[in-house]
Each structure stands twice: as C-alpha cells, then as structure tokens.
Amino acid sequence: MADARTPKGLFIETYGCQMNVYDSERMRDVLAPLGYAPVDKPDDADLVVLNTCHIREKATEKVYSEIGRLRAHKERRIAEGKGMTIAIAGCVAQAEGEEIIRRAPEVDLVVGPQAYHKLPELIARAARKTGERLAADFTAQEKFDALPARAPDGVTAFLSIQEGCDKFCTFCVVPYTRGAEYSRPLADVIAEARALADKGVREITLLGQNVNAYHGGASFADLLLALAQIEGIERLRYMTSHPVEMTDDLIALHGQEPKLMPFLHLPVQSGSDRVLKAMNRKHDGAFYRDIIERVRKVRPDVALSSDFIVGFPGEREQDFEDTMQLVRNIGFASAFSFKYSPRPGTPAAAMLAQIPDEVKTERLLRLQALLWEQQTAFNVAQVGRVLPILVTGDGRRAGQKHGRSPYLQSVHFNDTAAQNGDIVSVRIEAATQNSLSGARLARTPEVA
Ligand code: 5AD
Ligand code: SF4
C-alpha cells in the first residue's frame, strides 16, 4: 500500500455544491498520510476522484461523460506502466453506485458521501483486485468521527456542521442521497473551528444542506455566538439556510454580531404560493418577504442571495411572473437559478403537468437577465465606498492583491504590503458583474 515515502498524484474533480467542495478538501486530508499530493491534471494522477452531484440531470450526465474521458487517460498511463485508480464519490455514487460499477468497468471504486474515511481501505482493495468496490452504508457520525485533522490551504475555509435533510421538498433528491438530517456535536464543531483558526483561517463558512436547522447541542444562533468568541476567527458565514428555520434569535444576531457577515443565502425557489405549496416548501411568498424585511431592519446593508427553480410541474405564466415580481421587490446581490429537472424517485418527477423544455429555457433566460441586472447594480453601488477586505492572495497583475468583501464579492486591489489574512480598507473604484477592483487606502485607520 502507498505510504508517505511513495508520493502519488491525486486529482479531485468537484461538481455541485459547497458541501462537495468541503468533502473534496476532507478527502484530500484523508489521502495525504498515504502519500497522495494534488496534481493539476488527470494524466499525472495515480488516483482520480470524481466528486459528483445528483441534484440536476446535467450533473449526472457529466459524470458518465467524464468517466469516458478518463478511460483514455487511464489506458495511456497503463501503457506507460503507471496505472490509474478511478474513484467515484459524492451523491451520484450514493444513488447509483451499483449501476456505475456495472456500467463502467474502468471505475475501481465507488464511495458515498458518508464513507470517505473508508477511502484508504477501498484503494488498497482495488490494488489487490479483491473485495468490495462500493462503500455507501455509513452514517455522517461514523464519517466525522474517523476523519483526520484539517489541513486548510488558505485564510478562508468551509466547515460542515450539518448534513442531510428531512424537509422533503418534492423536487429534491438530497433527503434520499444525503440521508436524514444530522447535526455534528457542538464540541466537535468548536474544536474544528479552533484548529482552523490555529492554522491561519480567518473566515469560516458553516455548511449544511439545512445549516440553520442545526441542533447539535445548541441552537444555530448560539453556535455562531460561540464561534465568534474564537480568537483569530474574524468572519462567519453560513449556507444553505431554509426560510422556516430563520428563528428570531438568528435574525437578531445579524444585527448584533459584527463577525457575522452581512450576506444571507436564503433560497426561496419560487415567488408563487401555488408552486411553493406543490414544492412542499412549508412557507409562502409573504413569509419569505417578512423574514427579509426583519433581517434588513437589523442589518440594513445585508446582501441577499437565493436559489430559484423555473418550470416546476404546473408552473403557469402567472406563477412565473410572481417569481419575477418577488425578485423585483426584494433585489438580490447574487443568485443561482435552474430549470426544473425531474429526479427519479422524487414526488415532483411523477407529477402530470411537466413543463416543456422550451418554456423552461425561455423563463430561465428572462429570470437570469433580471438577476444579472440586479447583481451588476449591486456591485456598481459599491463604487466609491471603502470596504474592509479580507486578503486571500496575490492579484492577477503585479502589485495587486486579491481579497473578499463582506458581501462575498471578489476584489482585486493595488497593494503589495498586505499579508494573507489581513483585513484592509480598500476604496472601490470599479465594478463588473462578477467582481470589484480598487486601491488600498494609505494610512487610514483599518476597519475591522
Ligand atoms: N431541479 C432543479 N433544481 C433543483 N435544485 C434542487 N433540486 C432540483 C431539481 N430537481 C436546486 C434548488 C436548490 C439548489 C441546491 O438546487 O434550487 O436550492
Ligand atoms: Fe432539498 Fe428542500 Fe432539503 Fe433543501 S430543504 S436539501 S431543497 S429537500
């Protein structure tokens, strides 16, 4: 079996949500003691991991076409006497593991999202060509208990605190692929956050499919408060949250805790009450608007983000117009929007009134045009302001640094002195749809 004395190339390709980004980092941590170090392309990799997403059709299709592409790399490496282990991880692995093993002989092993701690064993078995090639039958608790210490590679990090979901929105596979709602114990979360702070992390984004449903020994708001006490942690964020879990204490915290960043990703999915009901979202448009109003009252500069689905079964033009109206009323700083994609086994996939693809496409284009307009307007509104920017690395050009605004915007600014992890004052001079640029202020009191 490989160990630290025999360096091996690791190439992880990540699809889907932030949760998968976190999981990929953790797989890298699990594999480091075996001698695996990241490489830039699959041709240099002894082990390729596809960390897959099952949430929409396209994401699943991509997995099979990527496996096809990897076959050529694998054959080339075998011809050179090097070999390549191909592992499929993530939600497609969980949902279709046995089928992948049947359909794709070049895949050596399949590992579900709660079984990453089993990777070393599966890799060793694959090398010996003996035993199980599939590990999917574990709980989140088993996984977290067995994972090694974090090895972050920057000043920002994700921290998974909650996995799975019991909400059963009728369009969504998560309750089936990621399983029942599970919250990590408070002490474990705090210990992981402290370890990240000790290794130079300044900004933590708490992750969960329903992150604000957290109940691992404290309320979600109390967890945030506890994390804000950790020395070195300057900024806290969270995603993805559910509107019905926006409790009074969490809303109040947005006005009280300066380390909690003024950015809220709160998916609404649709602006139509009929559609929200059919989606089993457990809230209507008025409920969502009320939460936004209350958050804005305590934190007027909060930037809002959401997920939207267009073309859900039965969505009429008027329902779609209700979504557009909600977007116009609220105003979003960023958003993700998708065409509804029927997922086998979910209730919505069996609904009769499926919407033709052309209609979905046409609605998506209209919605995205509006959302992009709002995102650009939000960015342009920062021009002239001085923002506290967390320095994350070097910029594109010489003499530039790169960082992140409180509103999660990417910022390039002129400066050479700032160190990664500093929070510096930057005057914003220009904005595009996707980023800001400016210059660091000289000799001004730094903002926290
Ligand atoms: N079709 C389209 N979008 C979906 N999402 C979840 N399931 C589906 C589906 N079947 C979107 C939702 C969710 C985001 C993570 O993905 O908007 O919030
Ligand atoms: Fe899926 Fe709904 Fe759960 Fe979010 S709340 S993970 S959309 S079932």
TrEMBL record:
Keyword Secreted: no
Radical SAM core domain location: 151-377
Swiss-Prot/TrEMBL keywords: 4Fe-4S, Cytoplasm, Iron, Iron-sulfur, Metal-binding, S-adenosyl-L-methionine, Transferase, tRNA processing
Residues engaged in binding [4Fe-4S] cluster 2: C165, C169, C172
Binding site for [4Fe-4S] cluster 1: C17, C53, C91
SMART domains with a match to the protein in the record: Elp3
GO molecular function: 4 iron, 4 sulfur cluster binding; metal ion binding; tRNA-2-methylthio-N(6)-dimethylallyladenosine(37) synthase activity
The TRAM domain, residue ranges: 380-442
Location of the protein in the cell: Cytoplasm
EC number from the UniProt entry: 2.8.4.3
Main subcellular localisation: cytoplasm
Gene3D superfamilies the record matches: Methylthiotransferase, N-terminal domain, tm_1862 like domain
Annotated GO CC locations: cytosol
Domain MTTase N-terminal positions: 8-128
Cofactor binding annotation: Binds 2 [4Fe-4S] clusters. One cluster is coordinated with 3 cysteines and an exchangeable S-adenosyl-L-methionine.
InterPro entries recorded: Elp3/MiaA/NifB-like_rSAM (IPR006638), Methylthiotransferase (IPR005839), Methylthiotransferase_CS (IPR020612), Methylthiotransferase_N (IPR013848), Methylthiotransferase_N_sf (IPR038135), MiaB_methiolase (IPR006463), rSAM (IPR007197), rSAM_horseshoe (IPR023404)
Cofactor(s) required for function per UniProt: [4Fe-4S] cluster
Catalysed reactions, as listed in the record: N(6)-dimethylallyladenosine(37) in tRNA + (sulfur carrier)-SH + AH2 + 2 S-adenosyl-L-methionine = 2-methylsulfanyl-N(6)-dimethylallyladenosine(37) in tRNA + (sulfur carrier)-H + 5'-deoxyadenosine + L-methionine + A + S-adenosyl-L-homocysteine + 2 H(+)
Superkingdom, taxonomy of origin: Bacteria
EC class (word): transferase
Known function: Catalyzes the methylthiolation of N6-(dimethylallyl)adenosine (i(6)A), leading to the formation of 2-methylthio-N6-(dimethylallyl)adenosine (ms(2)i(6)A) at position 37 in tRNAs that read codons beginning with uridine.
Subunit-structure text: Monomer.
Sequence similarity: Belongs to the methylthiotransferase family. MiaB subfamily.
Protein name: tRNA-2-methylthio-N(6)-dimethylallyladenosine synthase
The species this protein was found in: Terricaulis silvestris
Gene that this sequence comes from: miaB
